């Protein structure tokens, strides 16, 4: 494709653009200009309730307060107010990436925008990066990663379930309006695909800059990932429970080829601001998952032993997880 080619922007139509294959804006999913049939818009009512609508000529969106004709929106700008037959005003805007991922069809649970943002920054995802993802799910995190790496990067995503992969592929295509040239979605188990057995994937990347794991047992992949992750590269794991968090943390420590893992959790709380009434919102986005990040050391280099003393009982008789070595005489390292 050369600059100036017509690139499909929505189903059933094309939009002339003057971009090249390597222009990140061409694959951002951001659309401007008049609203068109085949585009999705978000209608927000006076109470702040949002409704996702796929525009189609001659169709109507029905609400409890009357219908809204799609033709009243098609051809006009976004950011307008449209009134239903019952006299209720709705604000019409194209959905942002975060809004789209929350409301899109899903098979697996989506990675929420607050966590996707932390992953992109915490894992230091950069334009042109070679990223390995396990657990494509419904495609929410894949969209965030694709926007960060751009068309010059490479995102290789593994998903065990074919039905989930199909949903993820459709969601990514619907938001971007096209297939992303940097995305390689594969069906299979990551540990098997990167291993040496019969299920090994010959098309798996030989070397990657970043690894993002959104899976049930990420500790099963540590050894094979260590062979592909470049020195200084980042591994980021997204897990739901403290049991998973502890297991992957200790596995990385026992491996010895990674820096001391850092675990975080993010919570987002809105604020009510109205005149002198300024207070926290009664609702918030609380726990959704834990993030664990670590960096790969050079081959043959072992992480130095930690100097801090573990909490009493942290590695007592009831602890059954991975152990790096027996406790030192001063008790500073398990």
Your description of this structure?
The relative contact order is 0.10. This protein has a 7-stranded mixed β-sheet with strand order 11-10-9-12-13-17-14, with helices on both faces. Helix content is 20%, strand content 28%. The chain is built from 7 helices and 17 strands. The protein is α/β, with parallel strands linked by helices and 334 residues long. Helix 4 links the parallel strand 10 and strand 11.
Total count of strands: 17
Q: Helix fraction?
A: 10-25%
Number of structural domains:
2
CATH class of the largest domain: Alpha Beta
Lateral arrangement of strands in the main beta sheet: 11-10-9-12-13-17-14
Strand content: 25-35%
CATH topology label of the largest domain? Rossmann fold
Termini separation = 58 Å
- H/I helix tally: 7
Summarize, please.
The chain is of the alpha/beta class and 334 residues long. The protein is 20% helix and 28% strand.
What is the secondary structure topology, with strand pairs?
Blueprint: E1 6-10, E2 13-16, E3 40-44, E4 50-54, E5 60-63, E6 66-69, E7 80-83, E8 89-93, H1 97-103, H2 113-122, E9 130-134, H3 140-149, E10 154-159, H4 162-176, E11 183-187, H5 190-193, E12 208-213, H6 222-228, E13 229-239, H7 242-255, E14 262-264, E15 268-274, E16 277-285, E17 290-295
Parallel strand pairs: 9-10, 9-12, 10-11, 12-13
Antiparallel strand pairs: 1-2, 3-4, 3-8, 5-6, 7-8, 13-17, 14-17, 15-16
């Amino acid at each position: 494709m050369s600059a100036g080619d017509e690139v499909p922007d929505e189903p059933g139509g094309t939009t002339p653009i003057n971009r090249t294959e390597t222009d990140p804006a061409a694959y951002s999913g951001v659309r401007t200009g008049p609203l068109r049939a085949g585009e999705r818009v978000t209608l927000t009512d006076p109470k702040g309730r949002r409704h996702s609508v796929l525009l189609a000529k001659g169709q109507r969106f029905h609400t409890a307060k009357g219908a809204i004709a799609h033709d009243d929106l098609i051809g006009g700008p976004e950011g307008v107010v449209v009134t239903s037959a019952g006299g209720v005003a709705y604000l019409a805007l194209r959905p942002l990436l975060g809004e789209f991922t929350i409301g899109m069809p899903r098979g697996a649970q989506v990675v929420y925008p607050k966590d996707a943002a932390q992953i992109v920054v915490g894992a230091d995802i950069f334009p042109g990066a070679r990223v390995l993802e396990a657990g494509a799910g419904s495609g929410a995190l894949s969209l965030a990663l694709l926007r960060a790496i751009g068309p010059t990067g490479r995102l290789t995503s593994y998903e065990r379930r074919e039905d989930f992969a199909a949903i993820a592929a459709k969601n990514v295509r619907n938001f971007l309006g096209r297939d992303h040239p940097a995305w390689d979605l594969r069906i299979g188990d990551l540990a098997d695909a990167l291993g040496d057995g019969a299920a090994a994937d010959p098309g798996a990347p030989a070397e990657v800059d970043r690894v993002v794991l959104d899976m049930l047992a990420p500790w099963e992949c540590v050894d094979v990932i260590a062979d592909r992750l470049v020195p200084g590269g980042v591994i980021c794991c997204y897990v739901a429970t403290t049991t998973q968090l502890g297991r992957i943390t200790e596995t990385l420590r026992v491996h010895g080829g990674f820096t001391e893992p850092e675990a975080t959790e993010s919570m987002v709380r809105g604020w009510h601001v109205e005149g002198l009434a300024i207070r926290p919102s009664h609702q918030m986005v609380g726990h959704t998952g834990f993030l664990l990040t670590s960096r790969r050391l050079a081959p043959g280099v072992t992480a130095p032993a930690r100097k801090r003393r573990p909490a009493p009982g942290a590695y007592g008789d009831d602890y059954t997880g991975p152990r790096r070595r027996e406790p030192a005489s001063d008790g500073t390292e398990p």
